[in-house]
Write a structure and sequence with these properties.
Layout (H helix, E strand, L loop, with lengths): L2 H5 L10 H10 L1 E5 L4 E3 L7 E7 L2 E6 L5 E7 L4 E2 L2 H5 L6 E4 L3 E7 H10 L1 H27 L2 H15 L5 E3 L4 H7 L4 H13 L3 E4 L2 E4 L2 H8 L10
Antiparallel strand pairs: 1-8, 2-7, 3-6, 3-8, 4-5, 4-7, 9-11, 10-11
Length: about 230
């Protein structure tokens, strides 16, 4: 399958006619990364943006005391590093391959040239950035206003909704990574999962989680308190 066909289903390029898809494909640079490889570091020159073709990429910040805060996990079909296109400034966070990954890299100068020729590309990118802004706003709200049980409940509901309301979800990241995503430590996360099990809010079995009390999880995700229940 050629590059144009591979990018046709990516939201950033939806609606582009075949000729314009070919133009976009002509500037794409395929890059492969092994698990743990660095894609870019905070402060590196923002020379372009990336689209995940296969695998998963972790974007994160490191605090002065060395604590990692995951900002987002990008899956196939999602783009990241777009700030470089509009600002020409350095990358504001780190990015590493969470799993072996194949990425398309789009150089800033060449992509800006395409935007000047095809304004719909800019509109698509603005739509993607708007969704990203909402995600980060929700992340900031969660980390600053919600306690850890509420953050975990919100994440479980998010995974369920992503799977079209499924009553059973699967954690596709390690509990250590999930703890970093939720702004806590693995020991605290394990205690909360165990308590949710005892309260019959969920039933966890390894990486699988069955949702038993969705209204209770939704209330917790909105900022409610976890019932005392059995300790």
């Amino acid at each position: 399958m050629d590059i144009a066909a591979r990018i046709a289903g990516i939201s950033l390029f939806e609606g582009l006619p075949p000729q314009q898809l070919q133009e976009v494909a002509s500037i794409a640079r395929e890059r492969r990364y092994e698990k743990g490889d660095v894609v870019f570091l905070e402060g590196d020159e923002g020379t372009g943006f990336y689209v995940v073709v296969k695998g998963r990429v972790r974007v994160y910040k490191i605090s002065p005391d060395g604590k990692e805060q995951i900002l987002h996990l990008f899956e196939a079909g999602e783009c990241f590093g777009e700030v470089a296109v509009f600002t020409g400034k350095d990358y504001p966070a780190n990015a590493s391959a969470e799993l072996p990954a194949t990425l398309f890299f789009f150089p800033r100068n060449e992509f800006v040239g395409l935007i000047r020729k095809e304004p719909s590309l800019a509109l698509n990118m603005l739509a993607v950035l708007s969704m990203r802004l909402r995600r980060f706003a929700a992340l900031i709200e969660s980390l600053s206003l919600k306690e850890v049980p509420g953050r975990l409940a919100a994440y479980i509901i998010y995974l369920s909704e992503r799977d079209k309301g499924s009553g059973t979800i699967k954690l596709d990241i390690s509990k250590g990574r999930l703890a970093a995503l939720l702004g806590t430590i693995p020991e605290t996360l394990s205690r909360i999962l165990n308590k949710m099990n005892r309260l019959d809010m969920i039933r966890s079995d390894g990486s699988k989680i069955a949702i038993l009390d969705r209204p209770g999880l939704e209330e917790l995700a909105r900022g409610g308190k976890m019932p005392f229940g059995q300790t």
